[in-house]
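Please check this protein record:
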Amino acid sequence: MFEHVAHWISEQVDNAVDKSEEVDLSPILSGGALRAITDVALGSPIDDLGPEFVEVNTRLLEIASTRSSGQIVFDAIAVYIPKPLLRLMINLPSSAFRALRASKMLSRNIGWQLVREKLGAPEGSYDADIYSSLLHADKKDSTKKTLHPADLVAQTSLILLAGQDTTTPEEIYTTLSTAGSSDQYDNMPLLNAFIKETLRMYPAAALSERVALEDSVIPLATPITTRSGKTIDAIPSEEFDPERWLDGRVRQGEAIGPYANLILEMQTIVCDLIGKFAFSTSENEDGPFRLRLATTLLPLNGKGEKGAKLCVKRVV
């Protein structure tokens, strides 16, 4: 399933290269992530959901990626507004709230349509997708409880937005990190290390309330001596160093759990991309890429706009 999405993304990049060597990966990867989440979670191809669904979803992501001064002030005030009043504010006649209302209606309609299909599906398809698994959990294991259809439908919008807008930035940052390192592309352990280091440095769902205005450095009064006898004077946590995942410096457990599918998605897509294309930063950009913390961590170009324009060349 992820391989199908990876091939679709590669085709979009290949078509874009025909028009220009500079390709903005952000909308392409975002579209691929949406295809992946509809296939895996809903068990429905994105083409079956209709163009209106894709249009509204894209609009919501655009709204979520902007952080105007007014939005920042509203976010600070919103914590003091009673929740019942906040729920009523969705009826305000602004473009953002209109998009939210449209998304809520479409997600509810699509959710109920899919739930009815899953409930009437034959027994052999109970593991076909996440919705089917949740609706038929007790059929596979009598100790588990099924999720009530209404509760599952209520989560449809969140599942789609969260699943799309968290993996897209990570794939962009990983591609940026491997740009210019063609001799590393065939080394899967190193590619996995790049992905893990990208997730460490650029967490998609970083919490804004944990972002410090200034760095606070606590100097080591006494160097730390490890069990191997190595002395550590400083921990280079701000350095992008994929080697830390390969040389034993980081303890790697098995507690990936429910996030394993996200790692697999990134592995499949990034590996397919760097196997077919060579990426490098664009010389025409007005400054280096920057980050913006909105709903998720987003890449910005030199003009402060959401995007990740790279120079792309075919290698196969």
About this structure: Confidence is low (pLDDT under 50) at residues 180-186.
